[in-house]
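question for whoever is on the cluster today: can someone run the full assembly for these? two chains, 926 residues total. i dont have access anymore since they changed the login thing
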Amino acid sequence: MNEVQFDPELLQDFLTESSELLEQLDQDLVLLESTPTDLELLNRVFRALHTIKGSASFLALTNLVAIAHAAETALNAARNRVFVVDRGAMDLLLGASDVLKKQLGDVRAGRELTLAPSALVDGLSALGEVAPPGRGTPAIQTDAPGSPAEPADTLATGGSTSVPLSLPKNKLDLLEFLVADVDQTLEQIDAQLAQLAVEADRMAASAALTDLGEQLAKSAEFFEFGKMHELAGCVIKLGQQSTMLAADQLPAAMHLGQRVLEVLREQKVGLASGQVITRPIEALCEPFGHLNTLEAERQAEPEHISPAPGPDQPGSPAEPADHAPGTVHAGAPAAGATPGASSGSAAGAGEQTIRVEVSRLETLLNLVGELVLQKNRVGALVRGLARSTELPQEVREQFGETSGSLDRVTSDLQVAVMKTRMQPLEKVFGKYPRLIRDLARKLNKQINLEIEGASTEVDKSVIEEIGDPLVHLMRNSADHGVESPADRVKAGKPEAGTIRLVASNAGGHVQILIVDDGKGIDPEFIARKCIEKGLITDQQASAMSEREKIALIFAPGFSTAEKLSDVSGRGVGMDVVKTNIEKLKGTIEIESVVGQGTTMRIKIPLTVAILSAMMVGVGQEIYAVPLANVIEIVKPGEGTRSSINQRPVMRLRDTVLPLLSSGELFGLGAQADEQFAVVLTSGDKRVGLMVTRLIGQQEVVIKPLDRFIDKGGPVSGATVRDDGGVSLIVDVQRMFAIAAAGA
Amino acid sequence: MSALTKDTVATTPAPTRSVKTRTTADPSDTDAGSQLQLVTFGLGDEEFAVDILKVQEINRMMALTRVPSSPPEVEGVINLRGKIIPVVDLRRRFGLPPAERSAQSRIVVVEVHGRVIGFVVDRVSEVLRISRGIVEPAPSMVCSVDSDFIEGVGKLEDRLLILLDLARLFNSAQLNAMTQAAA
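^ ran it for u. tokens below:
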């Protein structure tokens, strides 16, 4: 099997699908820990693992199947209320999820698959094993075995009994394989049952069911499991008779088949953990002898199948009379809907999404960028035309109108293409419940994570880049922010700390807040640490505001950790976080109140390809300044300008604003008429960039500069203006760095 | 010599019909492998040539945008149909004295190492076909240009043609070195 070379596309599909499932799995598992009895959630988790296992077994990824199978078995036991998922169990399940992720990585890299640690597999298997004293779920005690009057809502409470499986040693060795075999057979039966509803497929499905039933019967013989053999017989009978059934009898027959399948699944799970689970099945099997006498099924059949059906159920009242023959199978799949069948019918309804290679979207985005430039040029030409008197008024107006609609259509197109690249932040946020849970466990803290606005959408490139900085910030909040439960109680706070992750749209930006209710950041402490490490001098520290002191945590080489922990505090980090966010043309700010908590505020543009800019003129040149960094624009009056240490400043309300000549900054020489101050900010620093002219706000397409021109100067990109000329895009962070170096 | 009258010489592998080509080699020597097809241009009194396959297009002078902190020989950037490309002042690259831009000044756009770069020349002369046989390795001190950038010298009947090695000329490591030396 292992030698088989699989279609790379198939493998890619498997990787994509499984990665997505695993991501969701992590989220669901963490959720499950707080609501361990949520059956819907358990089912979802189970199905995810089952799908991964199924695809993996098709691709013969044995090691992956093994761990997925162990986790699936454990979950199935949880589903059947053999045990309740507690922290220990969750650690194992999350461990399994980690191993699966690693194995997917191995598949991707074409490596040999990592083998799951045997302790993990054993632990998971132990979970799935039935607790010795007769499966002590309370429901069983009230539910006498086989009492038909008692409506049972799930299989586990339906009066089954189990005894350990006793088989000769040579058979026990094969148990795992045979259980997997039975499992596959059951899934195929499930699929074929659904196919019965489709008239065109019915013949084939019938034949397949007969075969599958016989296959199952053989397995049952192997296990020396009489009840399973009987049920296999039911499947055979169903297969043999289904083609002879009247259309209105079919749904009832399929429903009976589903019930048999449910009981079989229960038996299979038992076998997997070495138990023989039996329940009365006579009443269930009886109708299969004469399916053609079935009356059409009552539509309002309860969703949960009663494993020990009362005598009245097989002959339940007829379906609504208007259910004419020939139309019946259209509604049939819903009657016996199983996860497999329902997803099948959803696919038939037409896919709502398609997968597109990212490179195609990139191409599209580039082309739209070009189109925007050309549109801008057309706009400029038309404006020029409007002033000329050579053309008749009417023609000029028509040009104007056409140019106007071109403008709108292009803008809409641009937005539409951008939207194809937009993804919800959920993709990133989804990983954090797990992260915080693990951190809290490791740090012996109690931390609640509240996520808001996860549906806020940002560009794909932002999604890719924002993850790491956020992880780092959340780690810091959990490690340094939130106190231990004891300290919290002492401080009069609830034992459990809260970290809130809040995303929202704000104009062309997305704002992400990380708010904790921990001990806050002490500016004096930060300043002291920085002095100790020689990052600043005493004098500098005494001149700093509290905000500036807190902002010191972004200084390269800063760390407050007394001892290194493996959670955070290696002294690399906050500066990297800041750099990464600035790479996205974003900003980060910190507010903190000692004893009350810390808020980190991140602002990032929706996309990195197009920038909202303020166009400013300096001499003959026009520069684009990122609007995100512009606070305001002022025209300094005569009396407000002065200089400190030979450096120009201006008085702006009650503060002193350093001024920077753009002529000097951009190497154009001193400009006499720099009259406007564009007040720019980066972090807590502010400066007024003096420019000659203000041109206005514009969306510009960012073009990179060739690497041999981009030598770390105050510009880091360029854009083409609507007159075809080139404007450089000011890199505000670099500008501050250059200004500081020149000081 | 036939001076170019077109604004732009569009160059796909074959020379455009609008450009007059001239063969100066022995007429019997027509083997394509032994032929070189060159674009020649002038800087001051000297005449240079580059392989026509490397040349993307030749443009009239246009407004350049200066980039702060870029290497001194980089004159600025231009918009080449939506792409921003750097333009090098070849005079400065060769350490020649600056000259006034004239109506004959051109920006030759070439592709080197997968990057598109323009350079400014005083004039573009012609597209020329010569035999490889008449190209000799560059003797040192043959002209004002560093021999590192010279692939060879073509000896025509009445003059010398300096064949430039574009790869070396626009090697970014060398440019960097020059930048640092200048700084």
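summary bc i know u wont read the tokens: Residues 1-21, 23-30, 177-183 of chain B have pLDDT under 50 and may be disordered. The helical segments of chain B are 90-93, 166-169, 172-182.
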